[in-house]
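Practice problem: predict the structure.
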Amino acid sequence: MTTPARFGRYEVIELLGQGAMGAVYKAQDPAIDRLVAVKTMGGPVLAFPEHREEFLARFRQEARAAGRLSHPGIVSIHDVGVDESTSTPFIVMEYVPGTSLAKLLEDDPVLPLDRILEIVEQIGLALEEAHQHGVVHRDVKPGNIFLDTRGRVKVGDFGIARLEGSDITRAGVGLGTPGYVAPEVLRGGKADARSDLFSLAVLAYMLLAGRRPFVGRTGQDMGLQVLSHDPDPPHLLRPEVPLPVSEAVMRGLAKDPDRRTPSVARFLEELSEARTMEPPALAEPSVGARGVLLAAVALGVVVLLIGGTLLALRARPREALRTPTAASPAARPPATAAARPTAPPTPPATPVPTAKAQKAGRKDREPKGGVSR
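Answer:
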């Protein structure tokens, strides 16, 4: 594709992006010496005569819709025209130096929680401003969210926005990005502020959970997921997400618009309340309860000490428990063979004389002669 030199008076510097509806160029406005972004309507759209007027009407509608909005979070519209040499319609918009949210997530898919909520809040404030002026964006997605060099959010591409009271009734049917389009729009219903809220909740879910809630290989697959699939709440996929934040996002994803959070403003209020919500403080115990608590703590300490002692005793080896003391005889080392004293020999046993022998012995000991007794 050859990059044109200019559109009207705007001098093209480089191509910024290409889409189904056309292309976006970085350009210079020589009249006031400033950088701008020039969005064109591509050839594939204008190639069919039966659709040309319809899409040109939508293209002009984009300029009217975005041109009515003045908000720091919305990309400003400067000019609109048709290039004479190529008959190409174009819109001149504010050039936002920085990056898109889609590119940011490619480089860093997991952002800090506070930064995520800050980005969602800034997108929501821009959408709420548009809704207050009767403008529905209809294509809220990371590719249409820009962050300037200071990290501030800018919502762009109101190319398929629907103005209230517009005569283009069927032109928007089927438009939008698969996976972000609200169920009622997929069914052919009218898009309104609640449809943008659904897309914002999809974006918030993706940022918080680290993945999209509705996936598929084709746009039809993702559309079926939007109509029938209920994704897991973000806090189940990323534990650091507070439960109230997760619940607020899931309310924004309700398939029935009547059961969905009623407005973007209310959605932002719920997120803000969830961010500032603190866990309830513990009640101060009464005097009596404090005494019972102290007694329970003391009892617990005693139980722990006793249990620790028993465990220590059970841990000692059984041999250690049977080790004799130094004072017991078994504790003295056995005498060696050299030091052990020799016992005297046992004398032979003397036979005990019988009564007859004892009597004969007395006779032998009696003196001879006539000594009487």
